[in-house]
Every structure is written in C-alpha cells, then in structure tokens.
Amino acid sequence: LQSDVTVPFLDSTSHLQTPANMKPHGALLLLCLLHAVWGYDDTTFVAAVYEHAVNWSEPARPPSRQQALELMRGNLDVYRVQTREAKRQGADIIVFPEDGLYGFQTRDNLYPYLETIPDPEQIVWNPCDDPDRFNDTPVQRDLSCMAKDNDIYIVVNFGDKQFCDSSEDSTCPTDGKYQFNTDVVFDNRGTILARYHKQHLFMTEVQFNQPPAVEFTTFQTPFGKFGVFTCFDVLFREPAVALVEDYGVDTILFPTAWMDVLPLFVSVEFHQAWAMGMGVNFLSANTHVLDRRMTGSAIITPSGAVSYYHDMDSSEGMLLVAEIPIKPMKNVVTSTELPIREQDTAFVSDLFDDPFTFVELKSDSDYVSVCHNDLCCSLNYTKSGPSSETYALGAFDDLHTHEGQYYLQICALVKCANSSRDSCGQPIRDAQTIFSHLQLAGNFKFPHVFPEVLTTGLDLAMDEWQYKAGSVVSTSGIRESLLTAALFGRVYERDDGNFRSTNGVEGLSSGLPLIVTLFFVVNYILYA
Fold first, then answer.
1. Residues with Cβ within 8 Å of residue 377, at least 6 apart in sequence
2. What distance in Å separates the CA atoms of residue 369 and residue 374, rounded to the nearest whole number?
3. Mean pLDDT value of segment 153-161
4. Which of 51, 115, 148, 198 is catalytic?
5. Which of 51, 87, 98, 411 is catalytic?
C-alpha cells in the first residue's frame, strides 16, 4: 500500500482542515501499515507571520545613533500594531522578517543600528523588566515589552555587534567588531529565549560577518520545539536540515528577505516544498520590498501552505494567522528505479545558470523521460492548451556554482518562454495550458527532495496535487495553467565539489532499456 500527502483545503479562516473520521487510533494504525502517512495529534497552536514593508533609507554616510533609532522606531511601531492584532486573533507566536528594522545597509551605515545582544545560554535577561542592565539597548527593551505586554512569543531579525581583539582572535574583523545577522526570540514574559547568528550569508551581505561556527538554535515551548535559521541557510544541511533530523524540532521559524527567481525559487513555492520534504511546520516571514522582488510569506505544515501571501502589486505588508498542529508527522518516501525510454530529441538549455538536459513535450498526452548524469526523470501527462506554448521536462545532476556552491538533483517540468528551445528555463509568469493529469518522478538516491508546483499568477494550487510516494501527482487535474512542477533534490554530501559522475549527458543515448510496458504496470499498481 502507498498513502498520499494531500495539500490541505482552506476554509474562510485559512485553518487546516482534517478529515472528520480520522481518529487518533486510526492514524496510528495507518502509520504502521503504510509506507508514508501524514497525521497530527489533536493539539494545535496559533502561529502568525508578518510580511513587512520596511521603512529604510540609504544615506551617503552613516547615520547618527539617534537617527538610526528614529528610523527603527517607525518600523517598531508597525511591529507593535501587528503584534497586538496577532494576539487579538489568538496567536501564540509571531515571526517578523529579515532586515525588517533597518532595511539593507552598507557595513559602515549598518553599525549605528546594532546593539550587543547577550547570549541567552549564558545570561538570563528580560530587557523590559531590567532595561538598565546593559548599555544602549532600547530596541531590545521595546521588543521585550512588546512580547510581555501582549503575552506572546516574538521572533525578530536584528543586528548584533560583538567586539573583538585581533591579538586574541585571529578571525576578528579589521574594524574590531563582528556584525552578525541575528534572529532573537523573546518569550511571552519578555525574556530573551534564543539567539541565532546567520551562517550562510548571501553574496551581497558584506555588511555582516559569518559566525566562527554553525549555531544550532532550538528552544522548547508549551506548544512544541522550535528551531531558527535565516533565508539562504535553507539551501544547506547545517543548520537547516540538522535542526530537523538531529535536533528533532517540530516547527522552523524563518525570517527572510527572499528575492523571487523563477521558475524554481519563488519564495512561497520553495518554502512550501522544503516544509513538505522535511515534514515540519514552517513559519516564513518575508520582507516586502517590491523593487527587489521580495514578497511571499507563509504558514506551512507538512501537508502544504495553510495560509500564504504573495503580492507584487500592493505596497502594503500583510499579517497571516493560522492554527497548525504542534506535532507534524514525518513523511517516509521510498525511491524506486524508473523505466527509461531512450530520447533522441534531448537538448540543453540554462535554468538558473545551470545546463539542464531537456526533452520537449510534443504530444497532448504522453510519457517522456530524460537523464542527466545519474539522475533520470519521468513524466506521465495529459495537457490541453494553445499549440504555441512549449513545455519541456528537464534534468540536472551536478554542482551549482552561481551565487553559492551546492549540489543539485532536479527534475523540472517548465513552460518555455517561447517556441525557442533556448527559452526553456527562462523566467515566465503566465501560461494558458492546463494539465488534466500529471505524474512527475525521479530516481533520486538521496533523501532530501522537495516537491514544487506553481501555476499562473504564482499560485501554489494547494488542493490540486499530492506528494505521493516521492512523486508529484495530480490525477484530477490542476485547474490553473501550469508554470512549473519540480522535484528539487539537494545532495549535501557533494557540496565540496569533489564528486564527479561517470555517466555525463551523453549517457542519455547509451542504450537505456526500453521498458515502457513495465512502467505502466508499476504505475497502475501504485496509483490506479
């Protein structure tokens, strides 16, 4: 037997709907019987995330401390209003975005915004109750009182300065101080509960320093165990995957300043995929800065997004509040060998600066497959739409070296920008083709695979597809026109770049067995 993972239906309050006849003992029985099953216990909590349209400026020279505080107070006023509203709606915890208090600054301009944030593992401190314990910490005091006054946990991204001496610390920056991109957690009494320094700085984050060692930041609450990391961290094993697999967290808190990159790195698309692939709750709060393509926040369970926001037209922020389970059940996915049909029409086109091997979907209904190095991808589909629209199935199995270095294995169905094969993989936002049946699979040998579906208007089509037995499956059809469907695999063990496949792209025509009949037999057994 194989169970399925269904993207949840939403009611008018954006709360997760569970089958009325699913009793706890029944869920346990199914868990014993099935290869993969989603289930929750009957305990929930209310989560909130706020996508913030940050007020910021880029002065030619560093502001004074007073000028920096004035700018941050404007953003803190918004945080205060949204925290109060989140609590009014019953929220237990609220997450604010990366860089939300001061925007994007140079290293010198950033310094006046920073405060020294003590390590809560060494010092227990409630800034609201004891504001004079440390010098020049008014922002921490305001946030602490905000949490205490509203009886709510608050997660805020905020810069931490730590002074150092190069004569004692060989990694000390030349200006004598570390500047860390930092997430700070205040409990509902205002005490600093957790602090996390971002490990994987994006290439433009030269205003910050990388911490000397990876930090695995977790904390326990009455409503579950939480882990914290920031933005670009999500693409790497440490700390992101380790928090789930090694530290057993139930929910990830994710402040981000995420810039959309179509077709595979739209904020809500990728964050939902990561939560589904890892089997955890995921609270994503994005900065809302449209000229940087930054939008997209979500409250996600392993079954998919319960509530999300993505708007490139509005200049306003957005508060999301939803009830989610404390203990999400983990997904177990097994990998099977795929039947591969030789393809003599393969071509190469760039997707996110990686040379994907593609095959074009030439028929309205067909089974196609494509391979790159050790990865083979298959697609069984039925579609209808304008003949002028071109779709292609692509595979990539190699080291990605653009804007970072990490090893990817990806199966991706994409709409091409035009009829030219060179346009397959280029960013597009609109389509007219409907897929009434879709089954995308890959012969992944590594466990970290994240399922993606994105339709026209950058919608997630949440109730129209399933992550079933390691495949993206839609048997009843996706109502909106499809932009992309993908299985995004990460092979963390190969990030150092030392691994090289012996197959190569030329393996596409190296005599792979023609066993299409077997494919349909297996397909019938698993999915009919």
1. 338, 369, 370, 371, 393, 394, 395, 411, 440, 441, 442, 487
2. 13
3. 98
4. 198
5. 98
Place of tokens 């469907």: 485
Q: What is the pLDDT of residue 406?
A: 96
Eight-state DSSP code of residue 16: B
pLDDT at residue number 345:
83
* CA proximity to 487, closest of 515, 445, 431: 445
The pTM assigned to this predicted structure is 0.87
Query: 226: which strand partners?
Result: 219, 251
Nearest-angstrom CA–CA distance, 258 and 98? 9
Sheet holding 354-360, edge to edge: 347-351, 354-360, 391-400, 406-415, 482-490, 449-455
Number of residues assigned to the chain:
528
Give 78's contacts (C-beta < 8 A, 6+ positions apart).
52, 55, 317
Per-residue model confidence as pLDDT tens digits over 229-239: 999 999 999 99
> In 3D, which of 398, 392, 415, 403 has the Cα closest to residue 355?
398
What tens digit of pLDDT does each residue of 370-398 get?
999 999 999 999 999 999 999 999 999 99
Whether omega before 211 lies within 30 degrees of 0, making that bond cis, reads no
Can you say whether the dihedral through the CA atoms of 81, 87, 88, 90 is positive or negative? positive
231 labelled catalytic? yes
Q: How much is the pLDDT for 403?
A: 85
Give the count of alpha carbons within 13 A of 478, CB side only.
33
pLDDT at 109 exceeding the cut of 80: yes
Q: Which of 115, 128, 205, 231 is catalytic?
A: 231
Strand duo 347-351 + 318-325: pairing: unpaired
Q: Are 231 and 256 in contact (CB under 8 A)?
A: yes
Going across the sheet that includes 153-163, the strands are 192-197, 177-186, 153-163, 93-95, 44-51, 318-325
Rounded to a whole number of angstroms, the distance between the first and last alpha carbons of the chain is 12
**Residue 377's CB: how many other CB atoms inside 10 A?**
30
For range 5-17, the mean pLDDT: 34
Q: What is the pLDDT of residue 232?
A: 98
Bridge partners (DSSP) of residue 359 are: 393
Please give the single-letter amino acid code of residue 364.
D
Angle between the 65-88 and 138-150 helix axes, to the nearest 10 degrees?
Answer: 10
What are the tens digits of pLDDT across the range 196-213? 999 999 998 999 999 999
What confidence score (pLDDT) does residue 41 get?
A: 43
- In angstroms, the CA 416 to CA 527 distance is 29
pLDDT number for residue 383: 97
d(CA 427, CA 251): 31
